[in-house]
Amino acid sequence: MHEINLKAPAKINIALDITGLYDDGYHQVEMIMQTVSLYDKVIIRQQESGIQLAASAEELPTDQGNIAYRAAEMILNEADLNVGVDIYIEKKIPIAAGLAGGSTDAAAVLKGINSLYNLKFDFTRLSLIAAKLGSDVPFCLNGGTAYAYERGDKLKQLPDIRKTHFLIVTPPVPVSTAEVYQKYDFLKPDINVPVNKLLTIIQGQQQIKWNEGWANVLEGVTTHFLDDILEIKGIMMEMGVVFTMMSGSGPTVFGIVKDSKQAEHIVENWPRKGDFITNVSGLKAGVC
């Protein structure tokens, strides 16, 4: 095998809270994350030496500034292999949008090189490498539904939630995660995020009632400087969406819809021009 093709799914946060601050400036978080059926395509080919990376999105760096490139460096160094890879990323997930687009590409590169060169690294070993790359990368290795805590890199796999249809809308404005967390420290929004209640419901494999106050503590921070989020949420509710929330640090907003037919109707009749909009469903763990 000289080439491998992988699908790298996006993730959303169906709850996000900040519970503290570490001495090094990183935030202590509690999150429930979910992979969804919006994918980048990652193609990895063997080559004799070096790392080459290209992408369909011109704004993506093709060197160490790309987390997928660093993932390739790390796993090849870990394996002590004197070989190389040629990586191509076909971007479908919006960039800098709170959907873990970079992290999921990095996870795909780790899994792909592990398979392509028959390294036989187990999940634990891959997770240790992933954690060095970024807090979302370990989750993206397996996906599904998971509880993330501490720096966001400690994970507890949860039962897959019941089939849920999501509407995803991303305004054409990239958002810096680091800047949002800095603004959080300044604004300190007082929001109750019942992560443990939602965790208990999912662990008990109960039906999630989306009107019970699930929240993202960063939503009020990003909406402080970006009006698009509240406008998108308002349009969603007017069009019959059951529940809306910003994902991650934004600016993506997701909505819960009754079925794919309703989602398709909203996509076809979405009034804002320039937004990325699609309908997706939740994925089970290990499914890409």
From TrEMBL:
UniProt family annotation: Belongs to the GHMP kinase family. IspE subfamily.
UniProt cross-references to Pfam families, sorted A to Z: GHMP_kinases_C, GHMP_kinases_N
Catalytic reaction list: 4-CDP-2-C-methyl-D-erythritol + ATP = 4-CDP-2-C-methyl-D-erythritol 2-phosphate + ADP + H(+)
This enzyme's EC code(s): 2.7.1.148
Domain GHMP kinase N-terminal stretches: 66-144
Organism: Iocasia fonsfrigidae
Gene3D superfamilies cross-referenced by the UniProt entry: 3.30.230.10, GHMP kinase, C-terminal domain
Enzyme class: transferase
Coiled coil: none
Role according to the record: Catalyzes the phosphorylation of the position 2 hydroxy group of 4-diphosphocytidyl-2C-methyl-D-erythritol.
MF annotations from Gene Ontology: 4-(cytidine 5'-diphospho)-2-C-methyl-D-erythritol kinase activity; ATP binding
Record GO biological process: isopentenyl diphosphate biosynthetic process, methylerythritol 4-phosphate pathway; terpenoid biosynthetic process
Gene from which the chain derives: ispE
Domain GHMP kinase C-terminal positions: 221-274
Stated name of the protein: 4-diphosphocytidyl-2-C-methyl-D-erythritol kinase
Alphabetical list of InterPro entries matching this protein: GHMP_kinase_C_dom, GHMP_kinase_C_sf, GHMP_kinase_N_dom, IspE, Ribosomal_Su5_D2-typ_SF, Ribsml_uS5_D2-typ_fold_subgr
SUPFAM superfamilies: GHMP Kinase, C-terminal domain, Ribosomal protein S5 domain 2-like
Keywords: ATP-binding, Isoprene biosynthesis, Kinase, Nucleotide-binding, Transferase
Active site: 11, 136
Pathway: Isoprenoid biosynthesis; isopentenyl diphosphate biosynthesis via DXP pathway; isopentenyl diphosphate from 1-deoxy-D-xylulose 5-phosphate: step 3/6
Sequence positions that bind ATP: 94-104
